[in-house]
Amino acid sequence: MRQQRKADLEKHVEEINRLVKQANPDISSSGEEEDSEADDSNDNGEWNGIKDDAPAEAEAFIDQEDEYIDEDKYTTVTIESVGISKSGFEKAAGAKQDDDDDAAAAAEKQKREWTKEKPKSDRPKKPKKKKFRYETKAERKMERVKQGLKKKKQAQARKGK
């Protein structure tokens, strides 16, 4: 019984490995190479990191925008391909079009020359703020009387209906 289960398990593992190799031949072959390289580096006593024999293939350009809902909040997430180098992140080849749009927007927003005729024509003048002052005793009393009359009129309208 144990031997049969062990044989079934081995058969299943081999089948899964075969399917994985069919789906991603690069992953399975590179994983075996890394293991053998790791064994070689252990013999020397010093680890030099993972060696990258072939340059990475250009991945498909990803430019995707999704909307996620989290407790009544809508969040828009933009996913795009980037390249990583020592200088920092670089946008992928497909994103160059966005860079052109950004450059055009920056050209429109250049500093304008200041002239004495129209120094601040972009923004309208705000009206001057009225200085705050407390109400006098008489003003407060008048306000209370007005509110009382208003409430009395509303109460009569409710009773009248």
UniProtKB/TrEMBL annotation:
Source organism of this protein record: Corynespora cassiicola Philippines
Amino acid composition bias (Acidic residues), ranges on this chain: 31-43
Listed InterPro entries: Nucleolar_protein_12
Biased composition (Basic and acidic residues): 108-124, 133-146
Ranges of biased composition (kind: Basic residues): 147-161
Cleavable signal peptide: none
This protein's name: Uncharacterized protein
Top-level lineage group: Eukaryota
Segments of this protein annotated with the region Disordered: 17-67, 82-161
